[in-house]
Specification:
Elements: H1 6-22, E1 34-36, H2 41-49, E2 54-56, H3 71-87, E3 94-104, E4 107-109, H4 115-125, E5 129-140, E6 146-158, H5 163-171, E7 192-196, H6 199-203, H7 207-215
Parallel strand pairs: 1-2, 1-3
Antiparallel strand pairs: 3-4, 3-5, 5-6, 6-7
Helix pairs in contact: 4-5
Length: 217
């Protein structure tokens, strides 16, 4: 069968895309370029994995828990403050702020202070279900000065961990800069029995929630 000329193929593809757009059915979904208000290698890796264009900008905010805050309001506030801190440096750019904590029986676990604290957290999690909450903010410092704030929650079940397993895991250094003292995408995966919800949320950035928020911009 004779093949159409290359330029005819291109014109056919262009017509198809035009028809899709006229029917409000775009064939190509473009992701907005983001400024990630964080130096978290995990969040950056998630964005790279899903093909989301971004650049990083380090910010510092006070991460102290306020007396009136619960876990949800805490992560949402930190995500908002991170995004707003970077927005002032990137006018008209879409800025992403995020913060993740682990919660077990209303006890909020951030990053451990040291190895002893990491061991304490892992003993709390051993053999039990807990929640991972991530606050997400998209902010744009333009004429509208718009911000969208939300959060995602995922349930995770830890296997029973022996003292020797806890000591070994902490000695690897992996738990020391992770909320709840473990990394589900790293060596900590061997201690995870079950998960209910968004895996990427446990790593540090709920992609589906981020996509839904971005669509509103």
């Amino acid at each position: 069968m004779e093949q159409p000329p290359k330029n005819q193929i291109s014109e056919t593809l262009l017509d198809d895309l035009t028809n899709r757009r006229s029917l409000n059915m775009p064939g190509i979904f473009l992701l907005p370029d983001l400024v990630l208000a964080s130096t978290s290698p995990r969040r950056a890796e998630i964005l790279r994995t899903v093909g989301w264009p971004f650049e990083t900008f380090a910010v510092e905010v006070d991460e102290s828990l306020r007396s009136e805050e619960n876990a949800t309001s805490y992560v949402q506030r930190l995500a908002r403050e991170k995004a707003e801190a970077a927005s002032t440096r990137f006018p008209s750019r879409l800025v992403l702020g995020a913060d993740t904590v682990v919660v077990i029986e209303n006890d909020i676990l951030g990053k451990p202070l040291d190895e002893t604290d990491a061991c304490r957290m892992l003993r709390l999690l051993s053999g039990r279900w807990h929640q991972v909450l991530t606050g997400v903010t998209l902010s744009q410092s333009d004429d509208s000065n718009r911000s969208l704030v939300a959060h995602e929650s995922t349930e995770v079940k830890f296997a029973e961990m022996s003292d020797s397993e806890i000591d070994w895991y902490v000695s690897t250094g992996e738990p020391l800069d992770k909320a709840g003292a473990y990394a589900i995408q790293g060596r900590g995966a061997r201690f995870i029995e079950a998960i209910k919800g968004d895996y990427f949320n446990v790593v540090g950035l709920p992609v589906r929630l981020l996509y839904e928020l971005a669509q509103q911009f």
